[in-house]
């Protein structure tokens, strides 16, 4: 075990009932919404093309409208979750899930720490990013549900109007048929009196 003023390293297999991190407001400065930090880190905000191209299914002009959404979309598009196994140690037999620190460092350098030439991911910070992404997706879902309800109401109104119009057309058709039936004797009489 090694400890320094900025933290420490604990090697080997260990377990803990709880892990807490200092998060008191009094210990922090320059607190700002995470979406602003993401927007400034996103290559899309600086006019740089994405390494992996556009998001599948998005055509021109169909991208998100807000910087918050653009930052989140960029991050989600660029993250590459992987399955892996450690080369040695007690966890070498177990499949793990996460990210490759070097790939993550290219996207979000603040999520990676280097200790003795090894890269480590700060998963606690990644949780905040993924929470923001979830909030943005939830907002989109709520907007889509609202639009769906609006369209459903509009369709109900149109169905009601169509029913009334269908009844009116049926009524008019019945009247025309009855007028034609009334006019038949006059047409016959008129055709009999007309010289050939």
List the helices and strands and how they pair.
Blueprint: E1 2-4, E2 7-9, H1 34-41, H2 67-78, E3 82-84, E4 96-98, H3 101-107, E5 112-115, E6 118-121, H4 123-193
Antiparallel strand pairs: 1-2, 3-4, 5-6
Helix pairs in contact: 1-2, 2-4
Describe this structure in words.
The protein has a domain at 65-160. 50% of the residues lie in helices and 10% in strands. The protein has helices at 34-41, 67-78, 101-107, 123-193; strands at 2-4, 7-9, 82-84, 96-98, 112-115, 118-121. The chain has a two-stranded antiparallel sheet with strand order 1-2. A hairpin with a 2-residue loop joins strand 5 (112-115) and strand 6. Helix 1 packs across helix 2. The termini are far apart. Residues 44-61 have low confidence and may be disordered.
Please report the distance between the alpha carbons of the first and last residues. 121 Å
Q: How many beta-strand runs?
A: 6
Class based on secondary structure composition and strand pairing: mainly alpha
Roughly how many Å is the radius of gyration?
34 Å
Portion in helices: 40-55%
Low-pLDDT segments: 44-61
Query: What value does the average pLDDT take?
Result: 80
Task: Count the DSSP helices.
Answer: 4
Order of helices and strands: EEHHEEHEEH
In short:
The protein has 196 residues and is mainly alpha-helical. Helices cover 50% and strands 10% of the residues. The protein has a domain at 65-160.
Supply database-style keywords.
196 residues; mainly alpha; two-stranded antiparallel ribbon; two-stranded antiparallel sheet; 6 strands; rod-shaped
């Amino acid at each position: 075990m090694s400890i320094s003023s900025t933290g420490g390293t604990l090697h080997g297999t260990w377990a803990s009932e709880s892990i807490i991190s200092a998060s008191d407001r009094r210990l922090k400065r320059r607190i700002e919404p995470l979406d602003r930090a993401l927007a400034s880190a996103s290559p899309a905000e600086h006019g740089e093309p994405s390494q992996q191209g556009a998001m599948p299914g998005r055509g021109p002009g169909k991208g998100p409208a807000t910087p918050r959404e653009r930052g989140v979309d960029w991050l989600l598009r660029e993250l590459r979750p992987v399955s892996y196994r450690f080369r040695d140690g007690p966890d070498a037999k177990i499949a793990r899930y996460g990210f490759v620190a070097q790939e993550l460092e290219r996207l979000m350098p603040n999520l990676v720490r280097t200790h003795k030439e090894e890269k480590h991911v700060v998963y606690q910070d990644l949780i905040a990013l993924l929470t923001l992404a979830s909030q943005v997706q939830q907002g989109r879902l709520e907007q889509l549900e609202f639009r769906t309800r609006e369209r459903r109401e509009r369709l109900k109104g149109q169905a009601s109007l169509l029913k009334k119009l269908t009844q009116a057309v049926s009524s008019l058709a019945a009247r025309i048929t009855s007028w034609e039936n009334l006019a038949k004797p006059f047409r016959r009489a008129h055709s009999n009196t007309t010289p050939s």
